[in-house]
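lol so apparently i was supposed to do this last week
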Amino acid sequence: MDAEKENGAHCLILPHPTQGHINPILQFAKRLTHKRIKITLALTKFTLKTTTGFSGGSISTRSISDGFDEGGRAHANSSEEYQARFQQVGRETLAELLQDLAGSGRPVDCVVYDPFIPWVLDVAKGFGLLAAAFFTQSCAVDSIYYQAYTGELKLPLSGGEVVVPGLPPMKPEEMPSFIHDHGSYPGTFQMLLNQFRNVDKADWILINTFDKLEQEVLEWMSRFWRVKAIGPTIPSMYLDKRLQDDKEYGLNMFNPMTNTCMNWLDNQEPKSVIYASFGSLAQLTARQTKELAYALTTSNKPFLWVVRSTEESKLPEDFSKSRKGLVVTWAPQLEVLSHMAVGCFVTHCGWNSTLEGLSLGVPLVAMPQWTDQSTNAKLVTDVWGVGVRARADCNGIVSREEIVSCVKSVMESEDGKRIGSNAVKWKGIAREALDLGGSSDKNIEEFVTEIMLKRYPL
Ligand code: UDP
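anyway here it is w/ uridine-5'-diphosphate bound
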């Protein structure tokens, strides 16, 4: 056996530079290192410079450029400008990096990339490498975007129920926002469709989900691609506990107020706290922030609410005097969700937050804002039965009364008991998927074996 083969393969991991995309692909990378794959994580220069908390362990980091080394995405005038520049500068700097690694004595065998940046696949194939597209959204949502890409799903929608293979019939407003509100954010929608423009060239399609969670749609997609569900990509110590040092995602674009949150939670009664968070990107309107603020204060329950510093100015003026809870600019979300004091999670239903709530057995109040969140909310409420949907009024605002009623339904009602027992059931199934011999564990194992066989045939 030659030395390279003995040492296992080398994967270059390339995330899209946002928190919700870095977290899952990095977790997958950690699982690979556990199976003797060498990992190099390529981050944009700006991400590498501005994130905290990453010790790396056996994962080495390198940088490429998105063309905005000083300010990142925020310094671009539009999504279109950012994507175009990232593609142009990213291609060149990725090729330089691959060239450099090729001469390092440990060349890259396989590139695992986020299809939000599909040009990575073209560069990898230009170097003759294996490549895996790593989808960070649900298989349901990937499938819907694929149908839109092929034209099977006709846009704009005609108004009736939408039927997509492998999914329950959905109302138009349960589709991702770019589909339902066709024409909104055209640059972002184009990026989502572009995920598929070259995906047939990828050797694998990896999806952050698990077989039992999205069985039908995964089976449908497996008819034409080599699909492997490898999730939920949550640190091992919250699931199977086989990676002893894997307690957090470990690469923070925001600073978690860990001690403040955990000390406060330690002083609350079991299952009494409402945890509210809308992820790293969503921007609630001032009106919606006010409704949520009043809902939390009038619920008569302790609450822990994440309001990012860029959103703080929307808090009502009298709020700080009346509040019964804790407001922080960023929380250690996994630690919070697994704390016994937390009784429900008011969430925007970003895919990571959805999987985290589900995998940690916390009932959800779904308050989707845009993008894939309305589809995730549909699955949460009607398919997996782990939460209720807080509905917006005709002005698009979820009223304080609606939020309070949803929280009470989840935390106090008979229906809440059904939701609570479903949440516990899914927690067990999620853990099983990643435990030794579970469906995702097997898929990761197969992926590793296949890389070795393709690179170093017997
Ligand atoms: N998150 C966190 N602390 C917070 C809010 C969010 O650590 O206060 C993490 C959360 O655990 C999740 C990610 O940020 O892993 C957000 O991803 P998601 O897909 O839910 O939403 P996005 O930010 O992409 O809209």
